[in-house]
Amino acid sequence: MPDFLEIFFPVVYNRTQEPGISANYCKYDNQGLQLFTSSLYLAGLTATFFASYTTRKLGRRLTMLIAGILFIIGVVLNAAAQNLAMLIIGRILLGCGVGFANQGVPLFLSEIAPTKIRGGLNILFQLNVTIGILFAELVNYSTVKIEGGWGWRLSLGLAGIPATLLTLGALLVVDTPNSLIERGHLEEGKAVLRRIRGTDKIEAEFLELVEASRVAKLVKHPFRNLIQRRNRPQLVIAVALQIFQQFTGINAIMFYAPVLFDTLGFGNDAALYSAVVTGAVNVLSTMVSIYSVDKVGRRALLLEAGVQMFFSQLVIGIILGIKVKDHSDSLSKGFAILVVILVCTFVSSFAWSWGPLGWLIPSEIFPLETRSVGQSVTVCVNLLFTFLIAQAFLSMLCHLKYGIFLFFSGWVLIMSIFTLFLLPETKNVPIEEMTERVWKKHWFWKRFMDDGEDEVVIFTNGTDDSEKKDYSNGFDPASQL
């Protein structure tokens, strides 16, 4: 918004007001502006390490509550910002909220969900993210016309509504049975499991959770355990999915959709309107994923979307390369509409594949003893590469120009090949049976399951000395009751 840029980023504001500027791709290229966007993700990256501790020691519910409180404080600071420092501090607190929310919510959903609908229920997390994006675009579209400098304050302040809902929601829900049992609240965990399953026939699942918790407690150094050979497939998959998710180019498009369309000659109002359209497509397509993920599977959605995203970005790059040059060129109406259609095609394919599945798959592949720390690494890697893309995108747009879409399409090709050969299907597989039914049967990853597959490493007295014991036989989980 011009009023916002004039106060906090006057250099960018002055550049956007110059007629005939010779840098059609470069007028928003400013490290300070990029840092405002990306500082949220850098803060989230740091916060996720603390969130890993709270998730494990205090539970999933309290982690989500902390996220809501951080969001509310950040919103207040941003809406009332008088200078850039106040704005950045508020943004950092919002980032900390993102770190805690991304740590707690996917784990919460995966652990309360019955196996048959785990994928769809977990994707509700991503659906609500896309609904949030759409509301943000609608708010921006409505408030940009408010004069007197109140438009951007109202825009940032309205983020307090979902922040408050998250806080209240965290106060109302119960913690997961997995978390309660992991922290020693066995009877409470059993009662919650009975409540969320809606039946008294939960003994087998309960004993399975007790056994998984017992094994998890034997691991005194979860980060060290995470990098052991038998956990390497899950770690590689989780890290790769987060890197690939960001290198689809989706955040480049969603963060800067108004800037992108304005750069292409749409003008401020049309740019925001086009961004609203992409936001709506994002929401509707995520609903497609909720319906299909537990029917057609994770791999099919990722592979189909890879083809769709690759050709969408390739054609966008070709059109911009031919029609938009360095100067004040703009697209004709026909080509502009075609670019919007192609962007929507790209967004839709991402929204039913790499968007939700990038969070779903890591949340369901780790065993309990490394699940919390595995989710922490997942969030950390995601936020790290989100930060890198957010910080670099406007400069990349300036220097690569239309080539930025060719750059991202190349990455889509690479990640599709990775999915085809190295990503196993996890549809309808109970979380606690992943090792036996997925990893030990995969043509490549099974080799990592052969060495010490039934052993648990115990680090005693906080030292590096370790002893290995076989706990695969002779244990009755009911004895823990």
Automatic annotation (TrEMBL):
<feature type="transmembrane region" description="Helical">
    <location>
        <begin position="87"/>
        <end position="109"/>
    </location>
</feature>
<dbReference type="InterPro" id="IPR045262">
    <property type="entry name" value="STP/PLT_plant"/>
</dbReference>
<feature type="transmembrane region" description="Helical">
    <location>
        <begin position="121"/>
        <end position="142"/>
    </location>
</feature>
<dbReference type="InterPro" id="IPR005828">
    <property type="entry name" value="MFS_sugar_transport-like"/>
</dbReference>
<dbReference type="GO" id="GO:0016020">
    <property type="term" value="C:membrane"/>
</dbReference>
<feature type="transmembrane region" description="Helical">
    <location>
        <begin position="62"/>
        <end position="81"/>
    </location>
</feature>
<feature type="transmembrane region" description="Helical">
    <location>
        <begin position="334"/>
        <end position="361"/>
    </location>
</feature>
<feature type="transmembrane region" description="Helical">
    <location>
        <begin position="373"/>
        <end position="394"/>
    </location>
</feature>
<keyword id="KW-0472">Membrane</keyword>
<feature type="transmembrane region" description="Helical">
    <location>
        <begin position="154"/>
        <end position="174"/>
    </location>
</feature>
<dbReference type="InterPro" id="IPR020846">
    <property type="entry name" value="MFS_dom"/>
</dbReference>
<feature type="transmembrane region" description="Helical">
    <location>
        <begin position="271"/>
        <end position="293"/>
    </location>
</feature>
<dbReference type="GO" id="GO:0015145">
    <property type="term" value="F:monosaccharide transmembrane transporter activity"/>
</dbReference>
<feature type="transmembrane region" description="Helical">
    <location>
        <begin position="32"/>
        <end position="50"/>
    </location>
</feature>
<keyword id="KW-0812">Transmembrane</keyword>
<comment type="similarity">
    <text>Belongs to the major facilitator superfamily. Sugar transporter (TC 2.A.1.1) family.</text>
</comment>
<dbReference type="Pfam" id="PF00083">
    <property type="entry name" value="Sugar_tr"/>
</dbReference>
<keyword id="KW-1133">Transmembrane helix</keyword>
<keyword id="KW-0813">Transport</keyword>
<dbReference type="InterPro" id="IPR003663">
    <property type="entry name" value="Sugar/inositol_transpt"/>
</dbReference>
<feature type="domain" description="Major facilitator superfamily (MFS) profile">
    <location>
        <begin position="1"/>
        <end position="427"/>
    </location>
</feature>
<keyword id="KW-0762">Sugar transport</keyword>
<dbReference type="GO" id="GO:0015293">
    <property type="term" value="F:symporter activity"/>
</dbReference>
<feature type="transmembrane region" description="Helical">
    <location>
        <begin position="400"/>
        <end position="423"/>
    </location>
</feature>
<protein>
    <recommendedName>
        <fullName>Major facilitator superfamily (MFS) profile domain-containing protein</fullName>
    </recommendedName>
</protein>
<feature type="transmembrane region" description="Helical">
    <location>
        <begin position="235"/>
        <end position="259"/>
    </location>
</feature>
<dbReference type="InterPro" id="IPR005829">
    <property type="entry name" value="Sugar_transporter_CS"/>
</dbReference>
<feature type="transmembrane region" description="Helical">
    <location>
        <begin position="300"/>
        <end position="322"/>
    </location>
</feature>
<keyword id="KW-0769">Symport</keyword>
<dbReference type="InterPro" id="IPR044778">
    <property type="entry name" value="MFS_STP/MST-like_plant"/>
</dbReference>
<dbReference type="InterPro" id="IPR036259">
    <property type="entry name" value="MFS_trans_sf"/>
</dbReference>
